[in-house]
Design goal:
By secondary structure, this protein is α/β, with parallel strands linked by helices. The chain has a single domain, classed as NAD(P)-binding Rossmann-like Domain (Rossmann fold, 3-Layer(aba) Sandwich). 33% of the residues lie in helices and 16% in strands. A seven-stranded parallel sheet has the order 3-2-1-4-5-6-11, sandwiched between helices. It has a three-stranded mixed sheet with strand order 12-9-14. A two-stranded parallel ribbon has the order 7-10. Strand 5, helix 4 and strand 6 form a beta-alpha-beta unit. Helix 1 packs across helix 6, helix 3 packs parallel to helix 4 and helix 5 packs across helix 7. The structure holds NADP nicotinamide-adenine-dinucleotide phosphate.
Length: 305
């Protein structure tokens, strides 16, 4: 077995699969983990891992000692996975000396401010948000050199839960509404994966916001997805989050140009609504040689502020 230089934890998930694919295309030796579903991506080594188990996590990371680790594992309703699991990973990474990029979420915020940059303190209002905030605190405390990449709603290739939900609503096989008052900065999974790999190679640490360029409600995003996919957007039911249960309205905007990094992180233009509206454009192969020029483990000079 060739020693991997990149470990993708949660490699079987929506984001983890894309990080794994892109890294592999760029020539990285990737080992990815799954918990319940083992995907097949040729050339990738797979290992089953339960990040709730501290000993399993420590043993894997100690054995591999990869140059970089992307942790994209979580389970929304499980504190032990999302918070404790992230803590186990960060503790093992420090001992192994690897570079950690930990994926976090805009749900650490309450959604009541005009816009959130990296200096804003977390103020979670849901159990999931609290678990992600706890994970961030643990990662920062245990490994100050780690990057925490906070992102927003992820879509891409029709595989995301939001895209599937839009299809089900448009075809009448699901009930529910798309909120007009739940506003995020959706990001394409390919852009996000590309940014995470760039962060692996960067000299940055601490929190970075990596999100799409546009503020979109779930309903507006649903309409764009329906049009892209040739569905009748008039069939999409809309509603207000404020009237349906979860605390709301919710407006969680992450600026595209991170205040933590002196230049935009994404070399490719960030995902925008205009891209989505053009049928098919976003979901063709788009990242041929995006970040292939810097090998893992080589940290480029920081750009002047
Ligand atoms: N999706 C979004 O819109 C969104 C928005 C903001 C932030 N994020 C963040 O982005 C990251 C990735 O999200 P995603 O949408 O790619 O998630 P996902 O598709 O649900 O994938 C989650 C991954 O975590 C793994 N996992 C779950 N429980 C585990 C455990 N106990 N031990 C080890 N691995 C476990 C899953 O493995 P199996 O599938 O094999 O069980 C899977 O690989 C997460 O940190 C999430 O908080 C996501």
């Amino acid at each position: 077995m060739t020693a991997p230089n990149l470990l993708v934890i949660g490699g079987s998930g929506l984001l983890g699969r894309e990080v794994t694919r892109q890294a592999q295309r760029q020539g990285a030796r990737v080992l990815a983990t799954f918990h319940r579903r083992r995907p097949t991506i040729s050339g990738v080594q797979w290992r089953q891992l339960d990040i709730r188990n501290r000993h399993e996590v420590t043993a894997l990371i100690q054995q591999l000692r990869p140059v970089a680790i992307v942790n994209a594992a979580y389970r929304q309703s499980d504190w032990a996975t999302t918070a404790d699991g992230a803590t186990h990973v960060a503790a093992a990474v420090v001992v192994a000396g690897s570079r950690l990029v930990h994926v976090s979420s805009d749900v650490v915020f309450a959604g009541s401010a005009a816009r959130y940059d990296e200096t804003c303190p977390p103020e979670p209002i849901t159990p999931y948000g609290a678990a992600k905030a706890a994970a961030e605190t643990a990662v920062r405390r245990l490994d100050p050199g780690a990057v925490i990449a906070r992102t927003s709603l992820i879509i891409g290739y029709g595989h995301s839960p939001h895209e599937k939900h839009v299809h089900s609503l448009a075809s009448g096989t699901a009930t529910g509404v798309l909120f007009t008052d739940d506003i995020r900065c959706p990001v394409h999974v390919a852009d996000l994966a590309s940014a995470l790999l760039e962060l692996c190679r960067s000299p940055y640490s601490e929190i970075h916001h990596v999100a799409g360029a546009d503020d979109l409600s779930r309903y507006e995003l649903g309409v764009l997805i329906a049009r892209r996919d040739g569905l009748d957007d008039a069939r999409l039911p809309r509603g207000r989050r404020a009237q349906t249960g979860p605390p709301g309205p919710w407006r969680c905007l992450l600026p595209v140009v991170s205040v933590a990094a002196p230049r935009p992180l994404l070399r490719a233009p960030p995902f925008s609504a205009a891209d989505l509206a053009q049928t098919g454009r976003r979901d063709t192969v788009r990242h041929p040689a995006d970040v292939a020029d810097v090998p893992l483990g080589v940290v480029p000079e920081a750009s002047p502020p």
